[in-house]
């Protein structure tokens, strides 16, 4: 969802400033415009020119209904199938400034699912940011951890943020390049 319509927040809600990653409260009556609605959050610009990210749990402050999460598939029998589910889940993590998921942006360098001795599995992910020092790194990491933890059969999640090798646009999928007008 990207709208030119101005929306007045009906109540106070938490938000994250973009690109600093600083948590703020937007007061009731703040006027915003939704610029992106992907991956369970809303990127908005405020009437003061700030860009912020509002969680789906606060959709009602925007006059919207919270979207329901998809029911997870049954636990697959094999590691590769479970790893595929983790990759699919990471495709629901979006950079709040770019309408492309972190996998297609080329930000996820590796994903391994390993069995735990006590049962269940551990997902180990290495990912990066489009720019070192991006304030949204902790937000994207937390998003990935939360969504991966929702995959049935995953009991532990370890997402490591790295800056080497540095990201560059050639790492994007063709679909991402097409979406961003680079093809």
What does this structure look like?
By secondary structure, this protein is α+β, with helices and mostly antiparallel strands. The chain has two domains: about 5-60, SH3 type barrels (Roll); about 80-180, GMP Synthetase, Chain A, domain 3 (2-Layer Sandwich). About 15% of the residues lie in helices and about 30% in strands. The strands form two sheets. Strands 1-4-5-6-2-3 form a six-stranded antiparallel beta sheet, with no helix packed on it. Strands 7-8-9 form a three-stranded mixed beta sheet, covered by helices on one side. The longest helix is centred in the C-terminal third of the chain and has 13 residues, at about 135-150. The chain is globular and about 50 Å long. The two termini are about 25 Å apart. The mean pLDDT is about 90.
Task: Using the alpha-carbon principal axes, give the shape.
Answer: globular
Question: How many domains would you count in the coordinates?
Answer: 2
Number of helices: 3
CATH homology superfamily of the largest domain: Fe-S cluster assembly (FSCA)
Topology (SSEs and partners):
Blueprint: E1 7-8, E2 13-18, E3 23-26, E4 31-38, E5 41-46, E6 51-55, H1 79-90, E7 108-115, E8 121-127, H2 137-149, E9 154-161, H3 174-179
Parallel strand pairs: 8-9
Antiparallel strand pairs: 1-4, 2-3, 2-6, 4-5, 5-6, 7-8
Highlighted features:
three-stranded mixed sheet, alpha+beta, globular, GMP Synthetase, Chain A, domain 3, 183 residues, SH3 type barrels, six-stranded antiparallel sheet, 2 domains
């Amino acid at each position: 969802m990207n709208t030119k319509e101005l929306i007045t927040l009906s109540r106070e809600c938490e938000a994250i400033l973009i690109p600093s990653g600083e948590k703020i409260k937007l007061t009731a009556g703040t006027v915003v415009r939704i610029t992106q609605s992907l991956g369970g959050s809303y990127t908005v610009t405020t009437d003061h020119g700030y860009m912020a990210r509002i969680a789906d749990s606060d959709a009602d402050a925007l006059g919207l209904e919270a979207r329901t999460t998809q029911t997870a598939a049954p636990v697959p029998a094999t590691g590769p199938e479970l790893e595929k589910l983790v990759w699919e889940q990471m495709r629901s993590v979006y950079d709040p400034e770019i309408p492309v998921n972190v996998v297609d942006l080329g930000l996820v360098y590796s994903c391994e699912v390993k069995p735990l001795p006590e049962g269940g599995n551990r997902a180990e992910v290495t990912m990066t940011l489009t720019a070192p020092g991006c304030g949204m790194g902790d937000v994207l990491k937390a998003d990935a951890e939360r969504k991966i933890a929702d995959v049935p059969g995953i009991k532990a999640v370890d997402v490591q943020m790295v800056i080497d090798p540095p990201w560059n646009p050639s790492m994007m999928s063709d679909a991402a390049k097409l979406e961003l007008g680079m093809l």
